[in-house]
Request: fold
Amino acid sequence: MILEPITKRRSHFSFSGEPVAQEKLLEIIEAATHAPSGGNNQPWRYYYALNGTSGFDALLGCLDEGNQRYADKAGALILSAAQMKYVYKDKEYKNSHAWHDTGLANSLLLIQAVAIGLKSHPMGGFDPEKARKVANLGPDYDPVVMIAVGYPGNEASLPADILKKQTAPRKRKPFEEIVKQL
Reply:
């Protein structure tokens, strides 16, 4: 049942530092490629680096200081980007749904990570211009989110403020608050 990995997914803070095998990382990214998108444009792009590489250090340097406090122990970092323009029948169009479509792809990536035993944490706290330079993104692409991926680590090693977030019960709004029949 697909609902199980969906309900088990949560943003994780405690990573072991063990590098993620490239095959596993590519497997979760492949899940993202099967997301629906407007006009089948598939505007998402993924840039990843394994812990212990210069690429990892470069992506880590794009994160806000608060996110660096735990993401440095992730096995890999992923930058997702959205293609904001596309060409159809020789005419260029703005893709006003590119971020939405990339978000759909990101959600499949996160769910697949749970399904194969990896933990993840999507982060909006990063410098998009630094990330743009690190990934050599052209002007038609927007950096969307960075994702830390890895194996669970020792929660006791987390700073107290982050440990509190890690061990807090997962809170979701009541179903009745977000769903209304018309």
Remarks:
- The beta strands are 44-50, 76-83, 85-88, 91-94, 119-123, 141-150.
- The longest strand covers residues 141-150.
- The chain has a mean pLDDT of 94.
